[in-house]
Predict the 3D structure of the following.
Amino acid sequence: MAHCNTIFHQMLKLIPRHHFDKLEAEHGTGRKARSFTRWSQLVHLLSMQLTARASLRDGIASLKARLKSLYHLGVKPVARSTFSDANNGRPASFFAAVFARMYQRCRAHAPRHKFKFKNKLYSLDATVVSLCLTLFPWASFRRTKAGVKLHTLLDHDGYLPAFVAITPAKEHEVKKARALNLPKESIVVEDLGYTDYAWYGQLPTQKIFFVTRQKSNARYRVLERRPVNAALGLVSDETIQLTGAKARECPKPLRRIVYQDPKTGKSCVFLTNHFRLAAKTIADIYKERWQIEIFFRWIKQNLKIKAFIGNSENAVMSQIYAALIVYLLLCYTKFLCNLSVTLQNFMRILQLNLFRTCSLPELFEPPGPVPDNMNVNNQLTLAWA
């Protein structure tokens, strides 16, 4: 049979099968996996994301209509009940491992962050994916609401999700923050929701820097004041010592910077344990935290994580990790092919050309000139009576 190198096939090649098979061996496979493999399950999940299928039935039917392409993707048609059972029964931790391995491959080709310093820069935040309480009672977190929380660490080199943990929405963000294993000399940016003086006190022992905002009721005393450039919007740059009830949890001095945005006039107070960077750079680092909000908005608008093809906790987590794998595949392809197109336009083009047989770069080449010998005058003319 002739080789059919579809766009989807080319993107799946970015997930090396020997890496995938190794992860599969580590996580184990049951007897039923022989007929419907984990690879087939992943291909179906990715296809539903990339083609924006509305339901489980719709997603399976769309792939069944591509029998020849299925053969070259290394999968077979599957019954709806078999796929549903796999989503409910096979641990989503396997897809979390595939996501982590994909991030390791993708970050090697990602562009560096926009700042001059060499430290790794991360943003830390969480977002809630709302669910229907009637269909997802296991995810209840208020009397009338349900949802899961995506705890995310965004790598600013390429704006890639470096770590994602999915928990019930009622779990506090700080719990996952304490468990993070960050590279030494990294800078992590978080908002007020992550205020935890005990964690702030531990980060210097791990040689990790943080940038956050100070709570309005924080108690402290000033140890040192440094001159600032008011023309840059800087109001003050101080070394402080916390004096509140939890001050003993963070005994080392911190740096407090007050910045007023020249355009909006809004003032922000930042806390950090980094004393070497310029005060304006610290303010710019916190401003860059907005990229994680853009990431959350993008995945909610362009990936299928609002409507789910299964109601169990495992099915929801599997679908979310599949969506994140798609995001990494898009970024990875964009880096490798050096594409200037936005991720949103890239996604739209893929939805229309996923099973087209051409090279990926061809999708983004400008159309060629109209041939001179094209006879446009050889058309019938309608004559109105």
Summary: Residues 313-337 form the longest helix (25 residues). The two ends are 56 Å apart (CA to CA). The chain has a mean pLDDT of 89. Residues 7-96+315-361 form one domain.
